[in-house]
Records
---
Amino acid sequence: MGIFQRSIALADLSCLENKILELSVALVSEDEIQKLNSQYRKKQLPTDVLSFCEYESTEKLCEKKNENEVFVGELILCPKYIERNANEDGQSLEYALTYITAHGIFHLLGFEHGKKMFALQKQVADELVTSKNKK
């Protein structure tokens, strides 16, 4: 199971059962993500991920219950920034990329920063990376 599928399963949104969910992913440089971060969030710094949600909330996303295919939004990831932070935090790049990608996906599904979201993205990374490396 991949990051997207596991994140969706853990989000536990029954309204998304049997749906084909789509998202767009772009990998960009630190300069590019800094420009986007400045333009959309008014922050003059690079960042690890930006999520551009198609729906403003989980409730709005779930209103699409009659559609078989649902585009949830776009993730913009900066691998260089993620790699640098992973090195500083003593994490593997694989773990950090999985954790940050899950973070962005949960935003696309309508989650806000908080204990639940952070616990879920950690669970995704632990299940997909840590448990794989123990085998």
---
Amino acid sequence: MMNFNHADLIVAGGGLSGSRVVIQILNRLLDAGKEAGEKPIEILIIDRFGEFGRGIPYGKQSPSGFLLIEPADQSTPKEFRDWLSLHYKELVHEGVHHEDRLLQAWIFRYKEQLESGQVDELYVPRKLFGFYVERLLSQTVQLAEARNLAKVGLMTGEVTDVEPEDSGFTIRLADDSSFHSRAFVLATGCIPRSNSSGLSVDEGYIHDLYEDAYAGLEQEVARRAKAFGRKLDILIAGSNASAIEAIYFLSNRAELLSVVRSINVVSSSGYLPGGVFEGEENEALTSGGQRPSAREYIEIAARFVAEGLVTATQAKIEQIDSRADRRLYIEADGLEGKIELTADIVVNCTGAGRVNRTDSPLISNLRARENHFKTNASLRGFQLRPNSYELEGVDNGFVIGPLLNQDALETHVESILAVYRVAEELGNALYQRLSETAMASKR
């Protein structure tokens, strides 16, 4: 990789948001061409997992078989749906996914719809969308570099600090390396929630399912079932999208499901995503205007509810402790007062953290620079300039993705279509900024 110690733009986060911003900038460069004497714009994308174009939801951190939570026509751009119909055979035979049995099964199940281009109502595997964006990023970079319009570096590493300076930014990584840039985009995804319990995987507490692509849950279920010599009781803390995905994950792994006695979903709402299941006995589990969910997820969850495997408890968890018997004891505030629950494994599915409640070194360091990175009122991100994605406290520093979220749901930038919309606007703004004499790399 060429030297990017002094780049025009550094993007922290190479998932969907960061990649779409870069794709938009490069497309603008390709449309405009280049005047004689202009140097190519230098862009460096830094991603913690090296999942460029994919990120956590659409890459290797999400297990095989995970789906988009809305039908394709409601959740993806038309160009992806057209591409899917055109290239689905190629995806099977290229070998990229040859070990992904659930993806293979999905493609076989919907073979007729894929061949006929009738994909609008399908809940598509997330890895397929990730593969599409990854390829699109690669192709767009190659075109821009071939015409000497841009030089784009892809680096695996964890950004831990951003220091604003008169001439731009110094970006620091966990390995103590640093890079300088004239502009900066924060595209690191959801704020990780702090582990207030202090418990670890070895104690039966799974704080972050995606940190190791569900390996912690898989290994701990097998280990504890063997050690205890019986079936396990699992408690899922929180009822957002990852809660129903955790249930779906277990359903597709017979060796794990066979050693599970119960799954209790504990949350302040008492609901699961996906709408109301049939029957009044299930209403408390799924009503309340929760987020949508994939049809396959809902079908599995409904069956488990009917079988008595999955139950719901409406309560707010206050504390989780591990005791000598190796079980976990959960103190919660229920509808009728304090209650105590027990489980062999607790899975955290409580969603994103807040700027003031996170174990992220990057977010903590940015918050400490309060003159530049001012926390917004919702504590979900940082204060921006009016009608802009630029940070209020620093020039040429921008934000995209969940860090744009406010309390109101319509402000959330997590869905694919929302990311596409914001990335186009931000990419256009950055193209203009990078094309100005002060920002262009004529040095």
---
Amino acid sequence: MAWFRRKEPKIEGKSERTGQTVNTEGKFQKCPECDSALYRRELRESFEVCIHCGHHFRFNARKRLEFLFDDGEFERLDEEVTSGDPLEFVDSKPYKDRIKQATEKSGLPEAIVSGKGTVGGHKVYAGAMDMSFIGGSMGSVVGEVISRAIKRAYTERVPLLVISQSGGARMMEGALSLMQMAKTS
């Protein structure tokens, strides 16, 4: 059944001018608002905003930091900090399984990406939360990563930017997640 898969894996054609095979697979993205075909390169240059209708596409925390930092380059920090399951929480599935599923879905180890780089030539620490990891909820790891960023920025006397995009406290960690709000304020 080909309802959800293409029958032919690539869109190709021969150029009338040169006779060479032209592959356009993955070079365009359709705007869901105005149905325009947009070059992915142009979409990236416009910060994921449709140049025809102004529709804002979703993008993840890593891309958000790439847009923020000069030349899209930054040093990632604290990716080794991962969630545990101190309460051994289980509802419809164990919390450990939820974390594994969220990591596979989002490609992130947690609901925050943290890094340092330059903005306008000035050193900056930044963290961006990501809704695709358990709704961007704040658990003990998110609190720890933000606290580390605050400490680094304070110690080095440089700016800190936290882009919050959160679904609130992570219920699977109970009071531990609630304490993170106090820890980071």
